[in-house]
Amino acid sequence: MRFSIELPPKDPLWRLQIYAHLADKLSFDAIWLSDHYFNRNTVISATVMAGVTRRLMIGLGIMNPYLYHPVWIAQAAATLSELAPGRVMLGIGAGDRLTLESIGVEQVSPVSRVREAAKIIRETLGGESGARGRLDFRPWGRIPLYVAAQGERFLRLAAEVGDGVLINSSWLHSPESPVGIVRGELARIGRDERAFSLEMEVLVSLHEDREKARKTVKPYVGVISLGIPTDQAEELGISQEALSRIREMVLKRNWLEIHKVVPENLVELFAVAGEPRYVEERISTLCEAGLDGIVLGGPLGPTPRRAIIELDRILRGLRR
Asked: Is 96 part of any domain?
């Protein structure tokens, strides 16, 4: 089982460096980033974190073909590999529809767009003759390609075109379901499961005060809830009225007030938020879901540095 952490580049670069350097000294296996235009640039953030780490894999992402041409994505990953040889992973996905629309970008044919992007990225990184874009340099080491997936079509796409999948935290309430979908698709198309990494990103907020932990994770839960298909929302008992209030807050990026409109049941469904013992129990249970890895996603906690140290203690116990 591989344990990684996500460090969303919402903090100043110097603080990201502190978190990354700390994680490199502890027992984590990798760092993943997220990519939102209102945060710091993900490529620059990955670069500064790669510069202060020696061991950790660096997951560049999650980048989408609506904002970035696939050749540019491949170029960024290949360049980063010069700073962190053999330590770069690349994550791609369709992006967040609401965020894209807020800057005038329409999310058209997401599955086919990401499938085509994966093809172009592989051709570019592999230096294949006839590739749409060809670099004048080679990446240092193999760069695994992960596909971020929330819906069933993307879970199947990940099995088709990826070296791994990053399952969205919206599946936390029933992790066996996406695992079964991906493994079933791998078997159907004849791919070796051993050459594929099945990982889930889990929103985590750890603090001795459970209410503080839950309040801190609610903005992240709110964003995730907006990507859930209508039929799934109905099955989970999530009202459209609640989603409308959350959508309004997200569009305004009113992160300080959004906790007031995110229902408590959404936190239970999509996040692990609470005191250390509770977090340990939830992660331990998740380890039995058939995953190859767990990405402990932002915010980590009201005080991320303390949360990183405490999460490391928990993971060391689970590895025994």
From this structure: yes
